[in-house]
Fold this protein.
Amino acid sequence: MSEHTIPLFQLVDRSLLATLMKRTGSGASVSVRELAAQAEVSRSTIGNLLSGSQEAVFAPTACQIAAAIGVDVLILFTPTGRATRHSGRTSTPRSGRRRLEAAA
């Protein structure tokens, strides 16, 4: 299986995500379940971002979440300047795993 380098995007502010979920670009509110379905990501990814247990996602995931809310990706996320080798799966790294790698 070939590996690709995919940039990470860090959530700017979890309260901003919560606020934008209450009033999306269309003016409607969206639940965690609805946002996850529209963005085609897991509910746990959205929940973890909101709780702060996850701080970053891969670039495609960040774009999907922002598009589902109806805002530009750079409103919600900022590129971390780091990239990670990835097999192409769409799972999202957990912030704890990143902290362990940084400490090593």
Summary: The longest strand covers residues 77-86. Helices lie at 14-22, 32-39, 43-51, 59-69, 73-76, 95-103. The beta strands are 4-11, 56-58, 77-86. The first helix runs from residue 14 to 22.
